[in-house]
Amino acid sequence: MRSGNGLAVLLIAFGALLILGKLGIFGFLMGLLIPILIVGLGVMAWRNGNRFLGGVIGLIGGLMLLGKLSFLFVWAAAIALIFFGVSMIRRRAGTRV
């Protein structure tokens, strides 16, 4: 394989993943792939010395990723509230004995 073919193979694989995502296969993963790639582009720009552009691109990708993963924060908050409530009940039950 020639040295320039690696990028071509990567682009072909990425295009195939996009098509599979549009067909409903790997739908959720494809929704995460684009924000992760944007964050990666921001990191690459940051490391290449263009800190402003890298920061802006990374921030945009991070916000997109945060929107995609927001359901995890809701789950974490719900679980934390349940554990906090249970610990309050246990603490009150322990002081009455």
Mind explaining what this structure looks like?
With 97 residues, this protein is mainly alpha-helical. Helices cover 87% and strands 0% of the residues. It is built from 4 helices and no strands. The N and C termini lie far apart (76 Å).
Quick overview:
By secondary structure, the protein is an all-alpha fold. It has 4 helices and no strands.
| Number of beta-strand segments | 0
What is the overall number of helices? 4
Mean pLDDT: 84
Low-confidence stretches: none
Give the helices and strands as they follow along the chain: HHHH
Structural class: mainly alpha
Helical content class: over 70%
Spatial separation of the terminal alpha carbons: 76 Å
- General form: elongated
Give the percentage of residues in beta strands: under 5%
- Largest sheet: number of strands, sense, barrel closure: none
Q: What is the alpha-carbon Rg in Å?
A: 22 Å
Key terms for this structure?
97 residues, elongated
Would you spell out the secondary-structure blueprint of this structure?
Blueprint: H1 5-22, H2 27-47, H3 51-68, H4 70-96
